[in-house]
């Protein structure tokens, strides 16, 4: 997982596939960065992502739960049509800002 921290904002650059094979690693690293840097805002960058299963939705929901307790927010950027559909159908779109933008 690649990430960038700016003040209290964490941007997570997700891999091509976000699934059960890499979800645990992404979750653990994100949680460590959030805790260590007092993060309030998490941006999931889907620029390279073509596939996401329910494990990816779990990553989003868990980070939302963490930062929302301190008044934070979760955003998605660079989503393609497939990822927007997954976020919408899963209900994740209701808890996060999705910034439109094709690859």
UniProtKB/TrEMBL annotation:
InterPro entries: Anti-sigma_ant, STAS_dom, STAS_dom_sf. Signal peptide: none annotated. Residues 1-103 form the STAS domain. It comes from the Bacteria. This is Anti-sigma factor antagonist. It comes from Mediterraneibacter faecis. Belongs to the anti-sigma-factor antagonist family. GO terms for molecular function: anti-sigma factor antagonist activity. Pfam families: STAS (PF01740).
């Amino acid at each position: 997982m690649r990430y960038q921290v700016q003040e209290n904002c964490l941007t997570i650059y997700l891999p091509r596939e976000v699934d059960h094979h890499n979800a645990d690693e992404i979750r653990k690293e994100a949680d460590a960065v959030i805790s260590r840097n007092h993060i309030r805002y998490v941006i999931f960058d889907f620029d390279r992502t073509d596939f996401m299963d329910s494990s990816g939705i779990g990553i989003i929901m868990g980070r939302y739960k963490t930062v929302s307790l301190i008044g934070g927010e979760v955003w998605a950027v660079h989503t393609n049509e497939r990822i927007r559909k997954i976020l919408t159908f899963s209900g994740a779109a209701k808890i996060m800002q999705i910034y439109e933008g094709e690859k």
